[in-house]
What we know:
InterPro entries: CUB_dom, FA58C, Galactose-bd-like_sf, LCCL, LCCL_sf, Neuropilin_MCO_CoagFactor, Sperma_CUB_dom_sf. The chain is mainly beta. It folds into 3 domains: 118 residues, Spermadhesin, CUB domain (Jelly Rolls, Sandwich), CATH 2.60.120; 83 residues, Ferric Hydroxamate Uptake Protein, Chain A, domain 1 (Beta Complex), CATH 2.170.130; 121 residues, Sandwich (Jelly Rolls). Helices cover 4% and strands 41% of the residues. It is built from 2 helices and 28 strands. Strands 16, 17, 20, 23, 25, 26 and 28 form a 7-stranded mixed β-sheet that branches. A 5-stranded antiparallel β-sheet has the order 1-4-9-6-7, with no helix packed on it. The protein is elongated, with a radius of gyration of 24 Å. It starts with a strand and ends with a strand.
Amino acid sequence: VSAGNGCGHTLLTPHSGTLSSKNYPGTYPNHTMCCWQLQAPPGTSLLLAFGDVDLEPSEHCALSSLLLTDPQTGTAYGPYCRNSVPSAPLLVTNSSTVTILFNSTSHRSGRGLLLSYATSQHPGGVRMGGSSDPLLIMCFSVYCPAGCKDIHGDIWGNPSQGYRDTSVLCKAAVHAGVIADELGGQVTLSREKGITLYESAFANGLRSKRGSLSEKRLIFHKVCCLLSPACDDVLEVVTFNASSWWHEVGMLGQDRDWVAERAALSTTGHSWAAEPDAKAAWLELDLGIRRNVTGIITKGSSEQHNYYVTSYHVSSSRDGKNWRPYRGSSGQEKVFEGNADSQGEVSNAFIPPIVARYIR
């Protein structure tokens, strides 16, 4: 729970979350306050990571302060400001409840604060910032809290190439589709030799940047890939079906059919398109047998027409008759962000994966 006029980006879930002051990483406003109350499940303890605490210095942190209290034991941590910073980047509490209070009076400078937390059920650690930590070598595992998608910082690269090692680690994990932003989760990755150029990509609601050579790069590993390298293989579609298709008649009278079979990503030339002005159009894929579907890649059709799908829902079925919509962590039917042009490919991950024969 958060309350006050000084609260910035905040995402709180029972097992992990992020919180920041208003305007972060810009200067936080004068005369504001925010109070966050963190409540973890019974029997667990909270671990708090100080991503950034930059409050204007003052005696006893009187102008701006960050104070953490444990209501269960009466323990207080702080107050903190620029001349009284936390002694360690990670605070391990013995409590499932922590209150975080941020106050500001009149001041001139300061980015404010950025914190993340996780519970003791996730001992892999909490990380939010860049991955330049010299301890992160070879293969390692960290716990990324929920809400990393909107934190400050850039990512360079894409799921197939990997990511420049200066990328914001947990934000890159969301882009790579190994965790869902609204849930967070454990991330396994390795640091490998860098490459000359990292290409930009749009995936899972995030746009990465095009970046130059780096000494190292980050490669994310899905859990299923650790067990079976074939989990990211492209699944074979036995049959394509659609609600309708467009029979195009050109200016010179030539016919062209935008049928469902042309929806395969590898198809050259024109794609599938529904009838003009069709409502609630759908495309259906029959995978032949029940398969584990971990994501989808979409692309528009630039063949004479600048066509692409900007957003879509996904449903699945095991028998082709009873359909189940794909829902996000909130329980609402999820809307996936699609393409912004007809040229680029856009990836969206299914976390958890869909087990089904039919996908719409």
